[in-house]
Design goal:
Length: about 200
Amino acid sequence: MAISIDAYHRLCLLLRTRVIDSASLVNHFETDINSIRRLDSINTVGDLIDVLESRDVLGPNNIDNLIYIVTAVNRENPDSEIQRAVQELHHHDRMEGVIPRVERHPIERVHQLIINEIGFKWKQLARELDIPEGIIDSLESMHRGNFVEMVREVLNFHRDNAPDYSWRTKLQRALTEARRNDLSLRVGDILSASRIH
């Protein structure tokens, strides 16, 4: 089952800060996660969502696991806001056409993840990707604080100019150097699951 990206993100946002009260919720996804270290690091529903997205078993085009999470969270702590979001989803599903959504390419997913998460560290990321200071200054003056566009251009510049054999390694190293090792790991998970080097 698929839903719009906006509806998916809205529901995830409502769930992200919830603390996981029951180990059974995380244990349900043990096979999908397939890493004891990752399982042990999951404390909130947001952590669980991030890991499942990186494993490619959760997203706007695959919400069965999200429905399971919503049901489990709502059973433990009923919430009217989550209930409303779920009702909107069901209404949206009835209105949705029959044409399935096209799954996004893993590189596009990586770029979107970084765009959504990098925040004010975007300049440090750009420098670690060896983007010239003049280009960084031009991006700032052209986009005037629009982080989404600045980061998108940085990532596209890197993808277009880095050799195929090293763009992934350089991107992950740059994220780590920009003190976003969490993003580096998530990028690695997405690309490894897709067998992109």
